[in-house]
Automatic annotation (TrEMBL):
InterPro entries: GTPase_Era-like (IPR005662), KH_dom-like_a/b (IPR015946), KH_sf_prok-type (IPR009019), P-loop_NTPase (IPR027417). This is G domain-containing protein. Coiled coil: none annotated. It comes from Homalodisca liturata. GO terms for biological process: ribosomal small subunit assembly. GO terms for molecular function: GTP binding; ribosomal small subunit binding; rRNA binding. One of its GO terms (cellular component) is mitochondrial matrix.
Amino acid sequence: LRDGEIAISEANVVAVIHDVGNRFTRGCLDPKVLRLLHLYPYKHSVLVLNKVDMVKKKRYLLELSDRLTCKRLTSPEKSHREDRTKLSEEEVMKEVKKQSGWSNFCQVFMVSALEGSGVGEVMEYFLQYARPGQWMFPETVYTDQKPERVICEAVKSRLLENLPNEIPYNCDTQIEMFNELRDETIMAVVLITCPSMRIEKLIMRKIRTIAQESEAELRNTFMTQVVLKLVLQTVEK
């Protein structure tokens, strides 16, 4: 959550990507997202409704847009004003409990990342409001994080994609071995610690898929060959 606060404080434009394919959660913004928006109400923000291809009744998308924007959009010029009174953490949480949407969005986009529809409009919008600035890192640097952390985060993301409900959040990942060979191939072993044998068995069914998807993501990140092994262990709480 702290990483989110740092990112939004430094961003020129904040995009809230909302999954409309999930009928259980699409009716309101995530409380953690609403909290960040309330902490930085002057930030230029937009709402991106993703997976619109999964909604059969397109009229519902308009109704959902009204609900998530509180039937109001703000101009980018007004959103940049920082003279609004900042709320305390307690005041923010009270506001979050009362609301399901955010009234300071500047624009709403409806996209299908799977089909590619609407993505171009989002990119054009970002380019329109991008501000010139110096590169924070040389062009040869792809991340400021250590390789070991990048690997663990990649495995965590694949756990989230492949496992249901709270299971990924109850597991811990850590590097057991990291080695970079002379041909620049990266070899790594990641230990996944599970809170129970039941969860370990559930992950075991998907472990080959998780490993393969993690490897593919890491090859794109590091731009080199990656050999990844996942090891499971259970530590009963």
